[in-house]
User: Fold this.
Amino acid sequence: MNISNYTKRAIIGGIISLLIIMTGTFLLGELSGYEAKVLIKHSLSGLNMLCNTIVLASATILALLLTLLSLSSGSNTKLKRDHFLSVLQIAKTVTGVFIMALMSFLIFNLPITESDNVPNNWFNAIYYASLIVSSILSSALIVVVLMLYNTVVNIIRIVGLGEKDHPLTLKEDEEEILGE
Assistant:
């Protein structure tokens, strides 16, 4: 499946946000195992809340895509296949984000800081891994929202504002070729 320019821009936006988040993360500097353990204890509730929020947002976006499809197919204007492929890309991406956030939530709920069997030097890696996972999840949600924004803007222009010469609308000669 080809990636549209809108999707490429959304991915670039997600990458930029990931770089900003990761820069802030690594400005904290080097930590000892004990410091990392303490920081993990303090950040777990926030990580769980982040994962819950992303799960909820992803499920809501996926459900609202059905409304978008209903509006798209019910409009008087015939939309090109590219529009529906764009919605399909959003659905696939948001489903992946939903699964990643739910799995991360389950992993973050393991009582790792309460275990005596985990060596102190592992907490450094666990801390940075949790920061990387939360950064990726946040950036992935930003990509989904940017993709959705582009799709909503196109629907507003086509259905709401009645643009007939929009790149996602079928022209009369194209409709005849497709046999509609």
